[in-house]
Amino acid sequence: MKRVVKGAVVGLGLCVLALPADAAGPMDRGRELFESSQLGTSGTSCSSCHPGGKKLEWAGSSYDDAKLAAIVNRCIEKALKGKPLDPGGEDMKALMQYIRSFGNPGG
What is the pLDDT of residue 58? Predict the structure, then answer.
């Protein structure tokens, strides 16, 4: 019986290690992207211009997904000097969810 339990614990540990980095959830991934200078080549991040989400409180309630994705990609291309994200991709969805949280006090 102890072998079975021990094997299950080891197996569970290996499964946890195999989880993707964003397994914590899209909000965490969105925060990571927002704060990362890896979205572009300028050495800056979204948070460089919008620390704590400043001036983005309106974004979540003002635009649908397509428009917000276009605005985000324009910032990535122009300000961050990066390549646009796939508008329907998981990274864009996570980033938009995080940006929308700035207008939601319960975030």
Answer: 87
